[in-house]
Amino acid sequence: MAxxxxxxxxxxxxxxxxxxxxxxxxxxxxKIEWIRDAxxxxxxxxxxxSFVPPRLLPQLADTADVLAxxxxxxxxxxxxLVPNLKGAQRALEANAEMxxxxxxxxxxxxxxxxxxxxxxxxxxxxxxxxxxxxxxxxTQIEVGISTAFGCTIQGEVKPExxxxxxxxxxxxxxxxxxxxxxxxxxxxxxxxxxFERVLKVAGDRLVCGHFHDTRGxxxxxxxxxxxxxxxxxxxxxxxxxxxPHAPGASGNVATEDLTYMLHSxxxxxxxxxxxxxxxxxxxxxxxxxxxxxxxxxxxxxxxxMKKEVAHA
Amino acid sequence: MAxxxxxxxxxxxxxxxxxxxxxxxxxxxxKIEWIRDAxxxxxxxxxxxSFVPPRLLPQLADTADVLAxxxxxxxxxxxxLVPNLKGAQRALEANAEMxxxxxxxxxxxxxxxxxxxxxxxxxxxxxxxxxxxxxxxxTQIEVGISTAFGCTIQGEVKPExxxxxxxxxxxxxxxxxxxxxxxxxxxxxxxxxxFERVLKVAGDRLVCGHFHDTRGxxxxxxxxxxxxxxxxxxxxxxxxxxxPHAPGASGNVATEDLTYMLHSxxxxxxxxxxxxxxxxxxxxxxxxxxxxxxxxxxxxxxxxMKKEVAHA
Lengths: 312, 312
Fold this sequence. Notes:
Radius of gyration of chain A: 18 Å
Oligomer: homodimer
Shape of chain A: globular
Number of helices of chain A: 13
Number of domains of chain A: 1
């Protein structure tokens, strides 16, 4: 059990994990406004979209344009999701700072999501690493182990398989790995056990936790990971999020709820809470008719939280 | 940091904390059905009402009748809230197994809720202890430290004051104490710190954690207390709950969400999850038009949770 981190990065994934799971197509101009406002609120890591075929996810068809805008903001680490070598080539062409490669620990989810078994995805990851090296780009490669705590299609996912895939991904030369509870099956005890095991293999290359709040345990799970020293978490403004190929997966941890918890605990995020709430209102407006989530926007901060803390 | 408890008691407080905070008056027959169903689901500790003047809380005016029914169920520990000596006399007359005495750590909340400063409440608690001894009853006395993590009226509540009040209550001869986040201001780090301090004073007489989910941290807070070995938590079916004299206080941790988290973590509760969900539906029906809360009733259990676990 490590001391809690003094500082945590809240990585905004609403523009990717969030928007891929709603029918509404948010116009490019609104996405740019979203990124501008998130940046003004202090966010410095934003997943801006996916390089997937537009016919599969028309909501993210403008990813290249959105990424190009994000790259104009100094100090912003814009990341893109990349499902295969072709997507990676586009990310390298665009000189993305980071590409996130999903690797399902569930065989069934891997087939549904990428039409490849996990070991075939690993082979593709090795190709992507080679392509990156050949390109001369500095684009970082992070592998996100999805369905790491179970799968709505397959059911159980063995921790041994997660550890094996993490080791294999690191052997294939990726820069970082993260663990994702894609479908909201994790509880804090599971998080403690699995992160502890993966830390033994990956050390500080385990860089992020990705939790869905589908069953109300998202922030409890974050707290369990924080206790192991994990200091980066994915979150979606307004708690949107899901996976088109994981039925019943919905609702990432809300950016504003996560930020509230961290600030209340005295953990720095560099984020301006009021600006996050204002952005949440905009996003909810753009997504009128879609389900949004989260709690703190309804109740507001405790009066015991001083402005300095709220804006830490 | 203790090992997580193997078994936890989920104490149902919906009939008191829940119903006192809604305008709807639930008929006595429905309350009896609630208790019968909760008992059939495995609940063995239920707070059935308050001995307060009916003009203040007409929703709980039938507490004596509800308690009398609860006392017919073998092995059920029925508790009542008691705000003063007069209420305690009624609880003793009724031979309640346990009476819960609220003691606000916030001076301002204490005045608003009981029209007495905390030290005057302590004097009353000593009188209640004397009355109990004189009565020859075995009625246990638990003091619930309310607003232990802050107050919507007063703002900050100092941990030193909580520790002082716990010590004073124990000195006054109460059998047990519990800590309550009446207004949903706690975060897991605060819970760890305050429970740790109070455990040093109270040891195993610190018997329960009472968390509101007003800002989405209820279950994270439970997890923090579990890590210190706390093995009893208050919860309300359908996540109802609040305090008439604590503006903005709403939503206890939902019984069914808490039970899901505990079962998922392999912690026994003796509760039948499906029966809890069926009861939740009934309660929501009785409270039509009132706000209800909770998550797991919307999404259902993960398919990885086997029936044996769900019904552990």
